[in-house]
Design brief:
This protein has 571 residues and is α/β, with parallel strands linked by helices. It contains 19 helices and 18 strands. It binds one RNA strand of 76 nucleotides through helix 2, helix 6, strand 10, strand 11 and helix 7.
Length: 571
RNA sequence: GGGCCUGUAGCUCAACGGUCAGAGCAGAGCGCUCAUAACGCUUUGGUUGGGGGUUCGAAUCCCUCCGGGCCUACCA
């Protein structure tokens, strides 16, 4: 039995995520985790909210809540939505957890001892009105290059010129609009990633089976310009993990916190700690997933994320892990994704354009979303959500091919026999051909899932469903029943077994429907098929079943038009 | 500006130097009647963005042009 550690990029705390966020990390991670569990492997699947940073503070200020309360509340909201999408996290933690505090401070201490932390004094813009230092992009002003009056301190969106906040003419705070700004000197810690460059490069170059997207982004950062740059890992903020060197104070760094991107990946480990605690286990339980000296050397660690997260997972976090000099588990495979667009454009939080996770669940069952998103997951390039495509995909694949198959089989069986798996008759050439085809397809499906080629996996699964309809059409039990009822009984017996098999195979993608299909036979779970022939004999004659309600109601044209109007956004 | 990815049938995608470039959807025809007017079979449709080159052979490698997207480092 293999042991597989799965992490999904952490969703940021400041609001409900849209489908583009879901499709790029949490959902594919869940499908993969479910698949590996179904194969009988031991899986630890963790995720958490990413709670620190300026945007969280601003979002809290906007609602008038203390930031800690705001995060606690939003964690609850995100957790509930994750449950609604059936994301099967073993732990959905919080980057603000005590575990993460301890671990982050611990790693910083180790890195400092290893000489990989540098203290740098730098000048940053401070806003007296806001009472805080402002990140570059929170300063607005007139671009010295093109005259655009809403240029940001890091870059002018109009002429794309890279800027320094001090370049701006008439700079003001993007938060309050205040022009009462001053440049103050402040000290920060830098992670000396540059010192890790060769080690990182060797490691990344050894990963020849990683998605091109992952390695090309990593290499770009390694080699761009002067090579990998050191990264500041502290900020002048109130909300965050206080800077400490392990368990000791860090002189000169009082009142500062670690930068979110330093502590967020560490929360993968933190969440595992939270999991052990929540399940009443000792530290050894999570350490055997994370410490190669404590049992983790046979763990395969797979990360899922959108392409924007790749630099942090290929460079920064590995620098932290490797630089610690301790035997922490390093990632084995990084699955990265492109973006999902909404009807030709970007999903937009500010313009309310596109579908957000809570809205999606409010209008249609999670399986619909899970299926469409995964069968169109942006693996090789950006993909596009349209209501027409969504309606067509869901109706055809789920309602017509799979749902209707279950429906026609169970209803025919009930009307010609009774609500029991019929006995009598023998399997012949048609059944052997079907079994041979399914044997090939199931093994192909396993291959795709193992390789985390989810789009192809979905495609193969669909072909497996379709094979049932083809078989049924050719075997024509309704015709056989008139002349040779025994033959019809054999066909129905096999077909009912197909429903059970489909439930098992489909579970990673559409867990609710899978559950409903199994419930038809009074089953809660069912094991992954070894040989297809054997699996199709699992339901014995006499086994009772209930004819299920329509598994997937179709999305009507009227409904689709309504959704399209509802989510068009304000722009 | 630099880098990366991408451009294949009306649409969404496969094929990653080698049999007539495949599949799903959409379209057309036929069949079936168990089923959510569902299913099955057959079929129309592509000089693989343009041009040039390497090769016995190129969608696949190289050059170039055109189009689309992303990244470019203290937002996360």
């Amino acid at each position: 039995m293999a042991r597989i550690l799965v992490t999904s990029a952490l969703p940021y705390i400041n609001g409900i995520k849209h489908l583009g966020n879901l499709v790029g990390s949490q959902l594919p991670a869940d499908v993969y985790a479910r698949y590996e569990r179904a194969r009988g492997n031991e899986v630890l699947f963790v995720c958490a909210t990413d709670e620190h940073g300026t945007p969280a503070e601003l979002a809290a200020a906007k609602t008038g809540e203390p930031v800690a309360d705001y995060c606690a509340r939003m964690w609850g909201v995100q957790k509930e939505i994750a449950d609604g999408f059936r994301l099967s996290f073993d732990q959905f933690g919080r980057s603000s957890s005590p575990y993460n505090h301890r671990l982050t401070q611990h790693f910083a201490g180790r890195l400092a001892e290893a000489g990989l932390i540098e203290e740098v004094s730098e000048k940053q813009v401070y806003s007296n009105a806001d009472g805080r230092f402002l990140p570059d992009r929170y300063i607005e002003g007139t671009c010295p290059n093109c005259g655009y009056d809403r240029a940001r301190g890091d870059q002018c969106e109009n002429c794309t010129k890279q800027l320094d906040p001090t370049d701006l003419i008439n700079p003001r705070s993007a938060i309050s609009g205040s022009t009462d700004l001053e440049v103050r000197e402040t000290k920060h810690l830098y992670l000396r990633q540059s010192a890790m460059r060769d080690k990182l490069r060797d490691w990344i170059e050894s990963k020849t089976d990683w998605p091109v997207l992952t390695t090309s982004i990593a290499k770009k950062w390694l080699d761009d310009g002067d090579g990998l740059q050191d990264r500041g890992i502290t900020r002048d903020l109130d909300w965050g993990i206080p800077v400490r060197k392990g368990t000791e104070d860090w002189p000169g760094m009082e009142g500062k916190v670690f930068y979110v991107w330093f502590d967020a990946p560490i929360e993968y480990i933190g969440a595992s700690g939270e999991w052990a605690e929540a399940t009443g286990q000792t530290d050894a339980a999570w350490e055997r997933w994370w410490r190669t000296d404590k049992g983790a050397d046979d763990v395969r660690y797979v990360q899922f994320m959108g392409k924007d997260n790749v630099p942090f997972h290929t460079l920064s976090f590995p620098s932290t892990i490797l630089g610690s000099g301790e035997p922490w588990k390093l990632v084995d495979y990084i699955k990265s994704f492109n973006y999902l667009n909404y009807d030709g454009g970007k999903f937009s939080t500010s313009q309310g354009r596109g579908v957000f996770m809570d809205q999606a669940l409010a209008i249609l069952p999670s399986d619909y979303w899970r299926w469409w998103l995964m069968s169109n997951v942006p693996e090789t390039s950006d993909s596009n959500f349209t209501w027409e495509g969504f309606q067509a995909g869901v109706n055809k694949d789920l309602a017509d091919v799979l749902g209707n198959f279950v429906s026609r089989v169970t209803k025919f069986a009930r009307s010609r026999f009774e609500e029991k798996v019929p006995e009598g008759g023998a399997y012949g050439a048609a059944e052997e051909a079907l079994i041979a085809e399914l044997e090939t397809r199931v093994r192909a499906y396993e291959g795709y899932m193992e390789a985390i080629e989810l789009r192809k996996g979905a495609q193969e699964l669909r072909a497996i469903w379709a094979a049932g309809n083809e078989y049924l059409q050719a075997a024509a039990p309704w015709a056989a029943f008139k002349t040779e009822p025994e033959r019809a009984a054999a066909i129905v017996r096999l077909s009912l077994n197909l429903v059970r098999l489909y439930a098992v195979l489909s579970r990673p993608f559409i867990p609710d429907a899978s559950k409903a299909m199994l419930a038809t036979f009074g089953l809660e779970t069912a094991g992954w098929p070894g040989s297809v022939a054997e699996a199709l004999g699992a339901l014995k004659p006499g086994q009772a079943f209930t004819t299920p309600e329509v598994l997937f109601a179709k999305i009507t044209d009227e409904a689709r038009e309504g959704f399209a109007a509802q989510f068009a956004g304000t722009a």
